[in-house]
Amino acid sequence: MAKKYWLMKSEPDAFSIEDLEKKGSEPWDGIRNYQARNFMRDDMKVGDGVLFYHSNSKPSGVAGVARVCKEAYPDHTAWDPDSHYFDPKCDPKNPTWMMVDLEFVERFSVAVPLNELKENPKLEGMMVTKRGMRLSIQPVEKKHFDEVLRMGRKRSKG
DNA sequence: GCCAACGTTGGC
DNA sequence: GCCAACGTTGGC
Predict the structure, then answer these.
(1) Positions of strand B less than 7 angstroms from a protein CB
(2) Protein A51 CA to nucleic acid B3 C1', in Å?
(3) Which of residues 45-84 of A touch strand C (CB under 7 A)?
(4) Measured between alpha carbons, how far is A112 from A64 in angstroms, rounded to an integer?
(5) Could you report how far apart the first and last alpha carbons of chain A are, in Å?
(6) Model pTM score
(7) Looking at A20-34, A86-100, A123-137, A141-155, which range is the least confident one?
(8) What domains can be seen in chain A, in order of their start residue?
(9) Strand C footprint nucleotides (protein C-beta < 7 Å)
């Protein structure tokens, strides 16, 4: 199976690329959307490339790159009453929610802001550039992944 | 802080 | 099963 590419959103106040860099790897918990879960559960494999996107940020944009290092397994925060992500409808014996682990790959010194993604004709059709796109995990085409990587590294050089 | 977009819930 | 109400996401 060919390597796949993804974009995953996080609010940097909650968990940022800097946090991932410090920790090395981290479970991507708290996903409570069926479409996003299905991508993790059904399609993500170890080694897949991930654009780490900072949302609700100034500005929002792609802050770096991560890699899937563990395939989908149950998200235990769903049945932890103390967790922000607690889901009272979730049965631990038949887990509804899953997560993968990501490991740090690369941090752009300056994030590639959303408006530059939108303005780049090579990224036409990329999901994150579409208005009203709230899905927090999105599949990304290889050509788009490579172009965003190029943009991030170019900026990093100054 | 505003509000458009969109997913979920619940009454019927 | 429809759809209005509600809650959340997330850019601006």
Answers:
(1) 4-9
(2) 28
(3) 55-57, 59-60
(4) 9
(5) 37
(6) 0.94
(7) A86-100
(8) 5-157 (3.10.590.10)
(9) 8-12
